[in-house]
Design a protein that fits this description.
Rossmann fold, binds histidyl-adenosine monophosphate, 5-stranded mixed beta sheet, BirA Bifunctional Protein, domain 2, 2 domains, 8-stranded mixed beta sheet, 36% helix, alpha+beta, 16 strands, 446 residues, 15 helices
């Protein structure tokens, strides 16, 4: 049968998605380590919820007026015909898990953190992906303003300690007791000025007027300068809460701007809302992080008692972009301790065995078992910056030995096969290398 000449199908990355290639590994390892370390130091434990949840969970929490739910959520029916969604944020899944696993019975507040992929079918642009990664901190089960302040300080400190100067834009959007009064005033104001609003903002005015404050339209931005402010319409409880948050931030020397337009795009927030923005920048378009209090969400999702909570999340891709743009030092991935080079069929067998023996001792070993020329192997060892190459050639097979070559000065030493593991250990202890897995990573600029 003649072969069909049909063109081979080629595949491409989906729009808005990103491959993380080996050259970027150190940034990702760094961020994960840093977040884990930060979480521990602030008393958070890890929680991992599934990437897939019932889509209704997000409709009920992120909200029917949020862009995330209305435009950006990846929703589909699974093979069992259940409507499911790829998580567009961590908070609702964590709230569900808290309720479902009766964490209310644990000592409160429950402090948890997560690190993982988030999916939003956003319009792709610089710093905006359809799959991005967040690290997320939640404190559930306590209403004290000191927790808001501590979380804000954490986010602020996270970047400050990376030498990335940031500022916090902060607001309070009240609660279900005081917000309706404010919304009435805002709606009247926006309706009176309806002609200034474009179709998107008119739609927001209908569904959730608060979201108009989040506009990207310059004309509406100007109009909003005269709009009533949430902070002027807070009930006593929300006002006292906000004043205390700000006092704590002052105490912690956190730089913040009061910004009445930080309403956040998610429906569940009450009281404090904030965004972490690179110093000198304005607007939440490319914010490094954001969060807020959500005292009513858990009850709405089925918690028996009122369960106040507060949290924030940061975008990892955006943080890495800033690290790279600012030439911030990130540890290199560890270099191999030794390189095993071999020449000939019998040598390959012994090299494989030696690799296994040293590997079991915890060393990090490089090799090119598929290569045959010694020169090419040593060149590779050199490129990798390895201190010692262990060479097994034909002579070493006959003598039952291994050659240890110091890659810096070219000195070579013949060692009996039975002593090679102890000799490697001695050499590495003498030099800069020792067991890699137990050593802190060296710092080196980009
Ligand atoms: P969010 O502001 O929607 O908040 O997202 C948090 C951070 O994720 C943003 O500040 C940004 O750095 C990053 N991010 C968001 N969308 C994208 C995207 N398309 N591409 C790249 N990075 C992005 C939340 O998700 C809330 N759940 C935070 C929270 C936790 N509130 C209370 N607890």
């Amino acid at each position: 049968m003649p072969q069909s000449k049909s063109k081979k199908q080629t595949f491409q990355l989906l729009r808005g998605m990103k491959d993380i290639l080996p050259d970027e590994e150190r940034y990702w390892v760094f961020m994960r380590d840093r977040v884990r370390d930060f979480a521990r130091r602030y008393g958070f434990r890890s929680i991992e919820t599934p990437i897939l949840e019932q889509s209704n969970l997000y409709l009920r929490s992120s909200g029917l007026s949020s862009d995330i739910v209305t435009k950006e959520m990846y929703v589909f029916s699974d093979p069992g015909n259940e409507r499911v969604a790829l998580r567009p944020e961590f908070t609702p899944g964590i709230a569900r898990a808290y309720i479902e696993h009766g964490m209310l019975n644990q000592s409160q507040p429950v402090k948890v953190y997560s690190f993982g992929p988030i999916f939003r079918h956003d319009r792709p642009q610089a710093g905006r992906f359809r799959q991005h990664t967040q690290f997320n901190f939640e404190v559930i089960g306590d209403q004290s303003p000191i927790l808001d302040a501590q979380l804000i300080t954490m986010g602020y400190q996270f970047y400050a300690q990376l030498n990335l100067p940031v500022q916090v834009d902060i607001n309070s959007i009240g609660c279900s007791a005081c917000r309706p009064r404010y919304l009435k005033k805002l709606t009247t104001f926006l309706t009176e000025n309806k002609k200034v609003l474009g179709p998107d903002d008119q739609e927001r005015l209908k569904k959730n007027p608060l979201r108009v404050l989040d506009t990207k339209d310059a004309n509406v931005e100007e109009l909003l300068m005269q709009a009533p402010q949430t902070v002027d319409h807070l009930c006593d409880e929300c006002k006292d809460h906000f004043v205390l948050v700000l006092e704590y931030l002052d105490e912690m020397d956190v730089k913040y701007n009061l910004n009445g337009r930080i309403v956040r795009g998610l429906d569940y927030y009450t009281k404090t809302t904030w965004e972490i923005i690179e110093s000198g920048k304005t607007g939440s378009q490319d914010s490094l992080g954001g969060g807020g209090r959500y005292d009513e969400l858990l009850h709405q999702l089925g918690a028996r008692a009122k369960t106040p909570a507060v949290g924030f999340a940061c975008g990892v891709e955006r943080a890495i972009t800033k690290l790279r743009a600012n030439d911030i030092a990130v540890p290199n991935m560890p270099k191999p301790d030794v390189y095993i080079a071999q020449l000939g069929k019998e040598a390959k067998k012994k090299a494989l065995k030696l690799f296994q023996q040293l590997n079991a001792e915890g060393y990090y070993i490089a090799e090119a078992f598929s290569k045959d020329g010694l020169k090419a192997q040593l060149e590779q060892a050199d490129k990798l910056g390895v201190k010692y190459a262990l060479i097994i050639g034909q002579q070493e097979i006959v003598d039952n030995t291994v050659l240890i070559r110091d890659m810096e000065n070219g000195n070579q030493e013949t060692v009996d096969w039975s002593k090679i593991v102890t000799e490697v250990a001695k050499h590495l202890e003498k030099g800069v290398n020792s067991k890699r897995l137990e050593r802190p990573l060296p710092l080196q600029a980009k």
